[in-house]
Design goal:
mainly alpha, two-stranded parallel sheet, 6 helices, about 50% helix
């Protein structure tokens, strides 16, 4: 993102922290020390998930978050599309309302007429 990336990231962190004050967790330092993942740079993600009581890590990085290693810690892995489709299956009205708000904002910010495409897996167009 260039030279402004850090300032942008800090602004996003501040906005998210204000909106979700309990979302930030600090795992015990010993927790990270006992964990192993193929990419050592991802261990903090698993440690935070465990410390925060998360049931799932949403990522497209299947290679570095093997299901068997996550399962040992009581955590599963979902890709973003599958996670959203699961949410939609459980709470279609909620997800459709949020999607409509996102669509309205995308149209407003871009000045273009966007459309939500039909979900490939479910066959339902929202």
């Amino acid at each position: 993102l260039g030279s402004e990336a850090e300032a942008l990231a800090r602004g996003e962190i501040a906005a998210l922290s204000a909106a979700f004050p309990r979302a930030s967790v600090r795992p015990d330092p010993g927790l990270e020390g006992r964990l192993w993942l193929p990419d050592a740079g991802d261990v903090h993600v698993l440690a935070a998930a465990i410390a925060g009581g998360a049931e799932v890590i949403v990522t497209m990085n299947a290679k570095d978050f093997p299901r068997d290693l996550l399962a040992e810690e009581g955590v599963s892995r979902a890709d973003p599309d599958g996670f959203l489709l699961g949410l939609h299956a459980a709470w279609p009205e909620v997800v459709e309302a949020i999607a409509a708000r996102v669509l309205d904002q995308a149209r407003r910010l871009s000045g273009e007429d966007w459309a939500i495409r039909e979900a490939e897996s479910s066959g339902s167009g929202w």
